[in-house]
Amino acid sequence: MNKKIVVFGATGTLGAPICKHLKSLGYDVVAVGHRKNDNGFFSDLGIKYFSINIEDCNDFNNLPQDNIYAVLNFAGALPASMSGYSPDLYIKSIVQGTLNVLEYTRRICADRIVFPQSLFDISYLFGSKVPISADSERRAPLDGDHAVYVIAKNAAVDLIEHYYQVYGLKRFILRLSRVYLYHPNPYTFTDGKKVMISDRYLIYQAMQGRDIELWGDPHRLLETCSITDFLQIIEKSLTATVDGGIYNIGSGGSTLKERIEGIIDVFSPSNNKSKIIYCPEKRSAQQFVLDIRKTINELGYMPKQTWHDYLVQFKQDMETQPFAKLWGKESDFYDMNK
Predict the structure, then answer these.
(1) Where are the domains of the chain?
(2) pTM for this structure?
(3) Among 3.90.1150.10, 3.40.50.720, 3.30.540.10, 3.40.50.300, what is the CATH number of 4-124+131-179+226-250+289-304?
(4) Which of 9, 59, 226, 229 could serve as 310's disulfide partner, Cβ 3.0–4.6 Å?
C-alpha cells in the first residue's frame, strides 16, 4: 500500500499518532505542521515533514502536488491550548485554514478529506444516558470558552460539505469526544486558565496511594474513546467505500465509578491502594454518550479497548515516553516530587 496521505496538524496530540500509525500500515505519509522544527521525529519514521502556515494560501505551493489520495486536516487552534482568549485565532486557523486546505485538496484531486468536529456542537443534548445520534442538528453554544471555537468548526464543516456537493470530495467528519492517550503535558486550559487535566490528577493521586474523592453520582456515564480505537476509525475512513458524512467517535462510555476504580487498579501501589471517598453532596459530572451505530455500519468500526485497557496502555506510554522527541518528557511539564 503506497497511497500518499497528507496530514495537517502533524505535530499535535492526535496528528503525531495518526502519522505514525498510517506509516506503520504502509501509507506514504506527508506530515505538515506549524512548528518550524520537529526535532527529527518524523525523519526517524521515514516521513517527510513540511512546516507551513495554513492561514496563508501561498504556503501550500511548498507541499506535494501530485498523486495525493487523502488529506487529513487536524490543524487549528484549540480551547484546551489557548492561554487567555483570542477568538480570532479560531476564525483564522479553522475557517480560513480549512478553506485553504480544501482548495489544496481540490487542486491536487485528492479522493477524500478527514476532519475532526467538536463534540460541543451537540452539547445542548448532554445530560442523559440516551446515545446522541451522529446526525443530530449541529448547534454552537453561544456562551462559554468554546462558543467561537464551535462556531468556527461548524463553518468549516459547512465548507467541507460544500466541496462535497460541488466537487464530489468525499468527507469523513469525525465528531470527537475526548480521545484518551498519554501526553507528557498534564495540563489543559479552561476559560483561558491553566489547570491540570482531571483524570491525570486522579492518576497522580493513585500513584501515591492517596484517597480519591468521587463527586456526585458515581454512575454518571461519560463517553470514552482510546487512541487505539480512534486510529482504527482513521484507518477505516481511508478505506471506506461510502462518500462519508459525520461520524461519532466513542465506545459506549464508562461510569465515573468504573473510571476511578480502573485508575486505582492500574496506578496505585499494590501495598498502598487508594481508597474511594464518596462525596454525593458535591457536583456531579455532566454525562453524555454517543450513538456509534453509523460509525459501525458505514465504516466497519468495532471498539476494542475498554477503559481499563486504555489505562494499561497509558501507563506503558508514561514509562516509555514514545513521543518525547517531538513533545518533550513529562518532567519538562510536571515534577512528581514537588
Answers:
(1) 4-124+131-179+226-250+289-304
(2) 0.96
(3) 3.40.50.720
(4) 226
